[in-house]
Amino acid sequence: MPSYGHTLRFGVEVRAPAAAPGVVVEAAVLAEQLGADLVLLPEGEDEGGLDAWSLATWTAGRTTTAHVGATRLDPLARPASTLARAAASLQLLSGERALLSLAAGEDPRRLVAAEETVAVLRAMQDTSQPRAPLRGTHQHLDGAEPGPALDREVPVWLHGSHEKAAALAGRVADGWMVDLAELSDERDQAQELARLTAALDSAATGAGRDPREVRRAAVLRADDPLDTDGLVALAVDHGISVLVLPVDGAAGLTARDRYLLERIAPTVRERVEDALPPGTLTDRPVRRADVRARRRPGIAYDEVPESLAGATVEPGDSAFARVRSTYLRGGDPGLVLRPGTVGEVVEAVGFARSHRHLPLGIRSGGHGISGRSTNDGGLVIDVGRLDDITVLDEAARLVRIGPGARWRDVATALQPHGWALSSGDYGGVGVGGLATAGGIGFLGRAHGLTIDHVRAVEMVLADGSLVRASATEHPELFWAVRGAGANFGIAVAFEFQVDQVGDVGWAQLAFQVDDAAAYLQAFGRVVAATPRRTTPFLILSRGVAHVMAMVDSSDPDEIVADLQPFAEIAPLVQQQVVVAPYAAVMNMFPESPHAGRGEPVSRSVLVREITPAFAAASADLIASGAAHWYQIRSVGGAVADVPADATAFAHRDAGFSLTVMGADAGRVDRWFDRVRAHAQGLYLSFESDPDPARVVEAFPPATLERLRRLKAELDPDNLFRDNFPIVHHGTRSAS
Amino acid sequence: MSTDYGHDLLFGTFVTPTNHPAHQAVEQAVVADEAGLDLVTFQDHPYVAKFHDTWTLMAYAAARTSRVRLAANVHNLPLRPPAVLARAAASLDLLSGGRVELGLGAGGFWDGVGAMGGPRRTPGESIEALDEAIQIIRGIWDTESRGGVSVRGRHYDVHGARRGPAPAHPIGIWVGAYKPRILRLVGRAADGWLPSLAYLQGGVSDLTEMNRRIDDAAEAAGRRPTDVRRLLNIGGRFAAQRGGFLQGPPAQWAEELAEVALTYGTSGFVLASDDTTTTQTFAAEVAPAVRELVAAARAS
Questions:
Q1: Which B positions 102-161 lie with beta carbon below 8 A of chain A?
Q2: Which of A297, A308, B92, B120 has the least C-beta neighbours within 10 A?
Q3: For residues A575 and A548, is the Cβ–Cβ distance under 8 A?
Q4: Topology of the domain covering B10-299
Q5: What is the predicted ipTM?
Q6: Residues A31, A40: contact at Cβ < 8 Å?
Q7: What is the distance between the alpha carbons of residues A19 and A511, in angstroms, rounded to a whole number?
């Protein structure tokens, strides 16, 4: 049997006597420096050898690139459930370099225990399945909480130089390890290996698996003459893809060991590649049959471009639990592409173009409401890895920021310069979504919207071309991106001119509210009279109002002067006012994994002022209990300095932005329609209603017409349509 | 009344072994190491998916630190086979240059243990198992004796297990314990006692009676009460204003902890802290002050 497509790797297995722990670790570290892809630490058969797991973990702490594995672990010695947690921890701590290999010795008990251990390890890594009990002879699970969810599962290998171990590996494992020294004799090695490999392959096939799912590793004989031909033959004739050099830990790396890693390994690698048809060897992950079984229809999984394949997440992958849903929306996408470079974004868009029949979510931070950055059975392009933050010009305060950066990271990076960039009200939100829609934040009245700071944007369009848009390059796109960017492409970098912002006043006030309508009107009046350096947000619920306000000043007198009028609106039940950096406010809430469920119901309106009629309709809505979230953000000030036709966000005269969320769309709308009657527009980021009628509320007629013209030119097939689409009917946009 | 077992004082932290972010707990161990604390400890709850495997975390943190000692606070025995634990502890002690101690508990949260496939034990059984485990662990570490380790217990049946490796230094077995029967086991067989103040219903004054049980059991077993170090897990908050116990400025903490050390013979204070500033303040402003107060009192 020829190659299984796995690229060739070299490793060392360092036997670890207790007498020389320092030498063992030194040998492992040196092997990594000399190019070893794997450093393996076996469970000691020797009297008093070091514990393999402790040694592997310690070694992981002292190395940076090599995969680190504990091997020959006795599956009878420890609970598999605890081993699963240990493996996950090693994976997380080492940066996905963990590997474990179980001893599947000829003792039938050990063979059974190895199989049961693999089953437990798989179950513990699968956070998507209900907790089914596993009751084996040696290993059990009885409702243990699986997890933690890993980005990449820890590969589980079986070790055993006999047919039963090979066959078991074929049925259940990710790899098989054979000791060449244990095969009958050197002359018959080829025959012996062929027999074991055939057993493995037929067991794999019999279990409905692809034999390529199992990597084959051979531990060389300690006295192997290291002839290049022999090593090439192992790879080419037997499909061995990991060549493991046994190292005596008491002696450290010998001259022979170094010679193999430094000189022979590159030659063998080269010769193996030459011996096989071009393109045979690939780092493309081979997914297990049970993982492939969870694929969704209509997706060409095996055609995902090679550059994207490594970071791509499918429904059966352990990373899926962490990427399927967003902050507010539950999802079950068929494929999540995670490009790490602009070139990969281009490839991802190309892949999406060939899947026009499926929903396509574009995700930066995963906080979108209008933006469907997850879906059911469709594609997601997640640009979270494009998160660089670079200062381009200190004097001009020009900063280049990737769409995947979070606003808390942006604030933290800008703070040492004495700068800030107005963003939303939550540090976990991603840059890409906000900076293409608007960005109504706590520095809004003082410094404008987030989009008002964009000086250039680089974007991958539907046809895969990369364009740079600014006041002078593609100015029409530059205009459109600032307010309706999601309709035109995927932003891969922004250049922002940020503001000089010192410490700010930050207030959190809570009020007792007996008359919501009266409170709202008073709040509106006070905001209108407040200097633009202060931007208050209000969250109103039955009986209680919370005001959060930022004052762009560190002068206590100015802060108190601006806040005092708010304190007089209603009885104050709680107050906290501090002077702090903007970054401290953005870092107030730690990031937690996204686990949204269902579909958010969110409604938005923009109003110039809080009129008695708007306040009355709002009060009725709050009293109805149909909404669990009623938030008003004050706008105006610097936001209104920008002409309405300067950006696609045209509602520059709005004084307030209202967002309402509830559980039931019908119930929310019954009350919200009365509020909406008083609106002068809406802010698309907070609107989840797909009704085309909302589009004309987000964009005045002239703006919308201009946007649709550009859409017809740049995305005629409407590839980008899952975040507040400006074109609804049919698949092609009307021109 | 005052008790003092004469041990030098240890100060450490009790860090949540969260696995999200993955390196947070390791970073807190590094903070403790750099701040000059003696000890960093982690709880061990293998059934909790959001926690790291405590042994793996300790081994990784040990590789990333240079002076601080590490221990679980405390290991969940039913999910940690004693022979494996003994060899792991000895190995890490060898790798780290003698920086490992062994915190052990009889177990608890039996639903969690059972879900992980571990044995459900009654309180009595769990103490019995702990007793057997300590014998096995000491046997594995004892490479001087001849023959294999044999402990034919009700919970563990080890028959002729090979010995070794021997740790780099005499690893202390520190047991978390509260009730009379397990306190007797501590006096008879352990090197340290590691209760949490939060679980003492009567506060620190409960220590008197519990110490007496340990002392009596030690003496009955032909040991000295000083063979068992008395540690204490504590929690508190630094504040400018003086408040309740460990709620105030570092100087207040120092007075209170010195008082506990001199009254109850407590010689290890392990502060629950996941916060860099708290750990640094404890190390820089509390530990030296307590040491000074205790030294002065011992000298007088």
A1: 112, 114-118, 143
A2: A297
A3: no
A4: TIM Barrel (3.20.20)
A5: 0.97
A6: no
A7: 69
